[in-house]
């Protein structure tokens, strides 16, 4: 009998494969588009550079305009390009059932811990869920309330006590009790969407073996509060989410935030748990990345947290975040990151203090001078950043609406907060961040809450 050659499929590949762009291609294409935008800005800014240089010298003018226009324009263009190219990989396993331990560090959370536990109990997750509440030297009835609610709900709950103040001490004390491969940290004032646990574990289960953590999407719970809370709603919904998406695309989410993130337990133990740092979750994540492990982001894993409604608490929170970034930069230098993508992403953080100082001490005074007819600092090229900012936020808004629709959520109307977020938020944020950098430089006392 004559052997026949196997049939060869000569049909053309599907259109999707033709349009497929590998991660490296997305990275370099985004950089190419960002470079084009920056070169366009440089050409338009020649007159501005010369005018400002005639007043403060040419080198000083170039240094200022780099911080005001060129770098912000470049990074915004890179973000817009990357967001347009982002395609979240499909989940390989939509209904995982791996046992998970949830750690909830508490300090005087008597008023809110019951709701947090109730939302955990309503998860549509089919696997075993264990909860450890760590009472970090509370002076109220946090532990008693947690135990009563857990008994009422039939929840697997363990309450432990940690006298040393600090979130890192609280979480590290609980780490010894974790017996599951996966664990999740959740802030005591943060409520999980009913599908959050399933989606975040599914993303981990659908990821490569070198992924050690998945950050969830944290949104504002008290968005109907005062004006400051309304502005922060858009920061979480658009600003922070866009950064997370960008970093997740390049497999280097820089913060698996303690408020809501999933971790591989043995990886946390391998880096000796949460460090003694004011930004313990930031430093922990950078240690992961420094070992060549990946950190992903799952936009469908949504939780809602309380944001500060007073300027005092807002300043303290955001200055703490800025200080935590500096701590991370000291622990793992950008050039020590093994991945080229995380090298770039952490280098972006390295230039943030420079941008914040320029914005605080040059842009804001320049804005005041512009009201009096002196346009030495606030020029045409700086305004070119605005279209990119609106474009990035529009792209993300469109994407976030789809996410909300999938989760049966609705985007609340908050037009005034959105306009204030676009035009005023950086005016608040840069000086607050500068204060955080100064705190770290002077080694001032660290405060968890």
TrEMBL record:
UniProt keyword annotations, A-Z: Glycosyltransferase, Membrane, Transferase, Transmembrane, Transmembrane helix
SUPFAM superfamilies: Nucleotide-diphospho-sugar transferases
Pfam families documented for this protein: Glyco_tranf_2_3 (PF13641)
Top-level taxon of the source organism: Bacteria
Transmembrane segment boundaries: 27-49, 55-85, 344-364, 376-397, 418-438
Family: Belongs to the glycosyltransferase 2 family.
Protein name: Glycosyltransferase family 2 protein
